[in-house]
UniProtKB/TrEMBL annotation:
Its EC number is 1.2.1.27. This is methylmalonate-semialdehyde dehydrogenase (CoA acylating). It holds the Pfam family Aldedh. Keywords: NAD, Oxidoreductase. The keyword NAD applies. It comes from Marinobacterium halophilum.
Length: 497
């Protein structure tokens, strides 16, 4: 019998399901287990258990909440091999890449350990004669997170550690495509000492999500996923009076200036374009070469470097990247490659249908390089989310920047140059939320916040870091005056007149 991945509700593992769905090992193409898809009633039970846990958790001192996070961090480190194996089996990313993902998640737990400091609030003495005023950050209540398949461990850890240390209770709806590591990690949170009901995980699909979006007990929703769904989540959650941050898709460009150290740029681009099969919202999928000389050198060196790329199963650490998530997604990525060729681009390295010994049923796409891509092409306009690097040729840096600014997405971007003034102008003016200068994947560390601009983020506050304190709390400002009642002057024996 295939294992059924279920839910964690009020501290108990459950497998009730309105429906079930296969979970695949994308390297073999076989369904290795099933996931329970929660119906409305199960989600409502999770919300109710979070609601019941809230009063006590809200009043638990931040230091005690933080101590649970310290223990959680240790458990994550002790169980990292097991977690990475689960990620590899269901997502397909290579173990060392999964370890990097987990490390980035742990860094968010470390940031959450600073809760007492983060929640200190603001204080002003004598805002008027004998009047003091302070702002404190109170939890919202029950908040929800909805997460994508591509970082099954890290993205949930962007959300609930901070939400919990701020005093909220949480209902997480992870991706139904790779649910095992999420559930395992949530059990570690329980083991670390979290009271039952404070964190609940419900696996599910649209029915579960819609229940969270419309239930009045949910006060805020954090979402990470594709742009069409992010927009739907934001508009539906907002229409139901909830605070919402919805992070969407991306098309991240790298500008390759004529003075760039080309060997370094090629090296960086290799990892940033093909790592994790390009299934990263910060993947560099477009290289904009300034001048034909830079473009020719880039293509030549990139083509040569790509000869040694190794695609295969997660368990072989000599592989550079693994399969894409599903059979349908492989076909979609291959379709984008074909469409670029049909629309006049030049296919330099074709990664469609690679031979992977022993894994003929896997959902593999090899590293693909396409030159002479233009902004009108479908493969340029849309997010491919596969191991495909496209080269666009322009004549000036301004042309490259105009291209980036005109794109609907604005998640990440970077520039490769040796010129500080050009880099400064670029970072100051480009309409993108996260910018790298000779850094291909400018993912902010846990003590800065993460978020794109334009249609890569709906809402205002970014994910994790300092913005998370603001997102998961509401400000209350208290102003106080204590007129003298004479207590300090000692006992009064005379009858008050
Ligand atoms: P997705 O949008 O398909 O799914 C994300 C979540 O939404 C899942 O939990 C899923 O169950 C749920 N969902 C899907 N369809 C829904 C619907 N119709 N109604 C309600 N809920 C629905 O995204 P994905 O394929 O899992 O992840 C890949 C996408 O996520 C890419 O576009 C990638 O760029 C994006 N992403 C963005 C960031 C970021 O920080 N901006 C980070 C990681 C991934």
């Amino acid at each position: 019998m295939t294992a059924l991945v279920g839910h964690l509700i009020n501290g108990e593992m459950r497998t009730d399901a309105a429906r079930t769905q296969d979970v695949f090992n994308p390297a073999t193409g076989e369904a290795s287990r099933q996931v329970a898809l929660a119906g409305k009633a199960t989600v409502e039970e999770a919300i109710a258990s979070a609601q019941a846990a809230f009063p006590a958790w809200r009043n638990t001192p931040p230091l005690k909440r933080a101590r649970i996070m310290f223990r959680f961090k240790e458990l994550l480190e002790q169980n990292s091999d097991e977690i990475c194996r689960m990620i590899g089996e269901e997502h397909g990313k290579i173990m060392h890449d999964a370890a990097g993902e987990l490390q980035r998640g742990i860094e968010n737990v470390e940031y959450a350990c600073g809760a007492p400091e983060l929640l200190k609030g603001e204080h002003s003495k004598n805002v008027g004669p004998d009047i003091d005023s302070w702002s404190e950050f109170q939890p919202l209540g029950v908040v929800a997170g909805i997460t994508p398949f591509n970082f099954p461990a890290m993205v949930p850890l962007w959300m609930y550690p901070m939400a919990l240390v701020c005093g909220n209770c949480f209902v997480l709806k992870p991706s139904e495509r790779d649910p095992s590591s999420v559930l395992f990690i949530a059990q570690l949170m329980q083991e670390a000492g979290l009271p039952d009901g404070v964190l609940n995980v419900v696996n599910g699909d649209k029915e579960a999500v819609d229940t969270l979006l419309t239930d009045e007990r949910i006060k805020a929703v954090s979402f990470v996923g594709s742009t069409p769904i992010a927009e739907y989540i934001y508009s539906t959650a907002s229409a139901h009076g909830k605070r919402c941050q919805a992070l969407g898709g991306a098309k991240n460009h790298a500008i390759i200036m004529p003075d760039a150290d080309m060997d370094n740029a090629v090296n960086q681009l290799l990892g940033a374009a093909f790592g994790s099969s390009g299934e990263r919202c910060m993947a560099l999928s477009v290289a904009v070469a300034v001048g034909d000389q830079a473009a020719d050198a880039l293509v030549e060196k990139m083509q040569a470097a790509m000869q040694s790329l190794k695609v295969g199963a997660f368990s072989d650490s000599s592989n550079d990247f693994g399969p894409v998530i599903t059979c349908a997604h492989r076909d979609k990525v291959n379709g984008y490659i074909s469409s670029a060729v049909e629309q006049g681009a030049m296919l330099v390295v074709d990664g469609r249908n690679p031979e992977v010994a022993g894994y003929s049923g896997g959902f593999f796409v090899g590293g693909t390089l396409i030159d002479h891509v233009t902004p009108e092409m479908i493969s340029y306009k849309e997010e491919i989310f596969g191991p495909v690097l496209q080269i666009v040729r322009v004549n000036t840096m301004q042309e490259a920047m105009d291209l980036i600014d005109a794109h609907e997405y604005g998640n990440g971007t970077c520039i490769f140059t040796r010129d500080g003034e050009a880099a400064r102008y670029f970072s100051d003016n480009i309409q993108v939320g996260m910018v790298g200068i000779n850094v291909p994947l400018p993912v902010p560390v846990a003590y800065h916040s993460f978020g794109g601009w334009k249609r890569s983020l709906f809402g205002d506050l970014h994910a994790y870091g300092p913005d998370a304190v603001r997102f998961y709390t509401k400000r209350k400002t208290i102003t106080q005056r204590w007129p003298s009642a004479g207590v300090r002057e000692g006992a009064q024996f005379a009858f008050p007149s």
